[in-house]
Design goal:
The chain has about 375 residues and is of the alpha+beta class. The chain contains 14 helices and 18 strands. Strand 6, helix 8 and strand 7 form a beta-alpha-beta unit.
Length: about 375
């Protein structure tokens, strides 16, 4: 893997020294197998507890922030990290803000995730870059699409990368680096790149597009890059046509996420034969992808666990399910797709054990990473 890497500062090659990657700038530490290619880490050494403590959400109030600075909570993190039975959600509850936890708990049945995972169907070989990979949910979908491929996830948030590597997709390689700056890779390092629900947060989209095109030889997929309801302080949205212009060198095409999702849920196909999106649509983009119909877009769909979006009530051999109300927006979206996540239903234990295909089709049964909940 070092042959694909280059320093984000000097752009020179990086030599693997086991616990660090070295270039003319100095030594970049590697913590739990994750290189820290960020300025504050250069020529320093850290334990995983120290890096995680550095990223803990700030406590409220001046007194809380002072106490965090004096007592960063490394002991509590150490206890949780070394708990053999610790789950993804238990560690996330320690490392993330409370309002972020539902995002992780229900991520595998989120409509934007389903559309993003379906859009990976044209990919056929690696290496693949997952830009802004977060906790690795889409990284795992790339592995399902291209088993044994080299997949590299990059994100600035080390706790998310740690969760990704420990729980979600341990076989991927992860780098802690700034996805909005110079990417730490040589030219043409990747066959393809994906970026889900993150491009809209970048302040320099033009620079990010140039970097994606520099490090990627083939397809680039930006899913959920534009949402007309997007609001973020200090970040102006980028309109679909303006985003497409950034990838003009590779035949970009825009798509309505609702069309992608609807066709996938009804037919388990990815239909890229009818591009088009406006400023009133949630939009995705492909560049360097043949605009046609792709079969087998359900490669990532499997199920053995009742979807955590359901509240359950057991009655003998029967299990009564009621879908949780996450928000009015979620409810309206589910209502638009009756083939997905029925509001209420009753099933039997035998259906769960046998992985009833209809329940899998409806995403009532999911395949979650081990020790996730």
């Amino acid at each position: 893997m070092p042959e694909l890497l280059s320093c984000p500062g000097c752009a020179g090659p990086l030599k693997n020294e086991g616990g660090a990657l070295r270039c003319s700038c100095g030594a970049w530490p590697v913590v739990e197998g994750i290189p820290l290619l960020v300025p504050w880490a250069l020529n320093r050494q850290f334990t995983v507890e120290e890096v995680l403590a550095r990223h803990l959400p700030p406590p409220p109030g001046a007194v809380g922030r002072l106490l965090r600075r004096l007592f960063p909570g490394i002991g509590a993190i150490r206890d949780s990290l070394h708990g053999r039975d610790a789950s993804f959600m238990e560690l996330a509850s320690l490392l993330m803000r409370p309002f972020e936890l539902d995002y992780f708990r229900y991520r595998f049945s989120d409509l934007s995730y389903l559309a993003s995972a379906a859009m990976l169907t044209p990919l056929s070989r690696g290496p693949v870059l997952d830009l802004g990979c977060g906790a690795g949910h889409l990284t795992g979908a790339v592995f399902r699409r291209i088993p044994k491929a080299l997949v590299v996830g990059i994100d600035i948030n080390f706790p998310l990368l740690y969760l990704a590597k420990r729980f979600v997709e341990p076989e991927a390689m992860y780098l802690c680096a700034n996805a909005a700056g110079r990417l730490p890779f040589v030219d043409g390092a990747f066959e393809a790149a994906v970026c889900a629900d993150m491009f809209k947060y970048l302040s320099d989209r033009g620079g990010a597009a140039r970097e994606l095109l520099r490090v990627t030889r083939g397809p680039v997929i930006l899913s959920h890059f534009f949402d007309p309801s997007f609001r973020e302080d200090g970040i102006a949205p980028i309109e679909p046509e303006a985003c497409a212009a950034l990838f003009s060198a590779r035949s970009p095409r825009l798509y309505k996420e609702s069309d992608i999702l609807g066709n996938f849920l009804r037919k388990r196909e990815l239909d890229l034969g009818a591009p088009g999106a406006s400023t009133s649509d949630v939009a995705s983009l492909t560049a360097g992808v043949d605009p046609r119909l792709y079969a087998g877009a359900d490669y990532f769909v499997a199920g053995e666990t009742i979807n955590p979006i359901y509240e359950t009530r057991e009655e003998g051999d029967r299990i009564h399910l009621t879908r949780r109300v996450l928000s009015e927006r979620h409810t309206a979206a589910f209502r638009a797709h009756p083939e997905l996540l029925p509001e209420t239903l009753t099933l039997t234990r035998e259906q769960v054990v046998n992985r009833d295909p209809e329940l899998v089709r409806q995403f009532v049964l999911l395949e979650l990473p081990p020790n996730y909940l």
